[in-house]
């Protein structure tokens, strides 16, 4: 069973069709790269899949459970959507760290907020907070940031901020980790730092969706590639096929620039 299924996803902004009848599926442990020119609908698709945008049409399932059905209002309440977002961890293009919190506090924040909703929170508060702190330290160590956990975002480089953002996304143990152009705000050296972390996550069979302009990275790390243009999926398949022998003319034209 696919971990993620999306059927007939459509999205319109101000009469402009941004997504047109998108179908896709994702297997557990798969790394899906979404490529295409600016304005092709890549980021909007990612935001619809993790409920930061609501599709006008379509169905989204995770682990066989229907999380969203545009034809069923019962799946669209704000309280319901908030819980469903927990299936996804999102790493933003521009980090989106809270400037008033340290790296450690940024990683712990979401889990602390959710912990307060647990029935046994008051009785186990100290124990729960200790567990959250241990996890945050472990994640920052994995990101190579053990010596930076007490630094604030303005004291970190862009690559370090993005690695904190990845640790934060992993803290809630999401089913799917989503990246929206994770290196576009970084210089080449810092880009390498972040791509190294993502490669390591791929080696650990982390299920990921990555919107990227880094073609060599998409080719080398992805297990499946989607090329989008004008709100549609033009071509998809194994990276070696899409990059090495594209079938569609629009794909060929796009890849000729890289």
Mean pLDDT: 94
Gyration radius, in Å: 19 Å
Strand order of the largest sheet: 6-7-8-3-9-10
**Which percent range describes the beta-strand content?**
15-25%
Q: Alpha-carbon distance between the termini?
A: 35 Å
Q: What's the domain count?
A: 1
| Low-pLDDT residue intervals, each spanning 5 or more residues | none
From the 3D coordinates, which CATH architecture would you assign?
A: 3-Layer(aba) Sandwich
Please summarize what this structure is.
With 258 residues, this protein is α/β, with parallel strands linked by helices. It has helices spanning 42-49, 78-84, 103-115, 121-142, 158-171, 188-203, 215-221, 239-244, 249-255, and strands at 4-13, 16-26, 31-35, 57-62, 65-69, 88-91, 176-180, 208-211, 224-229, 232-237. The mean pLDDT is 94.
């Amino acid at each position: 069973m696919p971990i993620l299924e999306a059927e007939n996803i459509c999205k319109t902004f101000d009469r402009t069709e941004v997504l047109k009848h998108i179908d896709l599926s994702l297997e557990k442990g798969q790394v899906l790269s979404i490529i295409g020119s600016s304005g092709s609908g890549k980021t909007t698709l990612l935001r619809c899949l993790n409920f930061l945008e609501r599709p006008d049409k379509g169905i989204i399932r995770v682990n066989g459970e229907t999380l969203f059905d545009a034809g069923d209002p019962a799946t669209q309440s704000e309280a319901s959507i908030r819980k469903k977002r927990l299936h996804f961890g999102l790493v933003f293009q521009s980090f989106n760290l809270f400037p008033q919190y340290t790296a450690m506090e940024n990683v712990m924040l979401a889990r602390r907020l959710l912990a307060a909703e647990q029935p046994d929170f008051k009785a186990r508060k100290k124990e729960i907070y200790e567990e959250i702190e241990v996890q945050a330290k472990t994640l920052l160590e994995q990101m190579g940031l053990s010596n930076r956990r007490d630094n604030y975002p303005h004291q970190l480089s862009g690559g370090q901020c993005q690695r904190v953002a990845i640790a934060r996304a992993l803290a809630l143990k999401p089913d799917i980790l989503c990246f929206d152009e994770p290196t576009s705000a970084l210089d080449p050296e810092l880009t390498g730092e972040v791509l190294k972390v993502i490669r390591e996550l791929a080696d650990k069979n982390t299920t990921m969706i990555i919107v990227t302009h880094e073609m060599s990275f998409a080719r080398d790390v992805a297990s499946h590639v989607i090329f989008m243009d004008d709100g549609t999926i033009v071509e998809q398949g194994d990276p070696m096929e899409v990059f090495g022998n594209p079938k569609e003319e629009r794909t060929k034209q796009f890849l000729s620039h890289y």
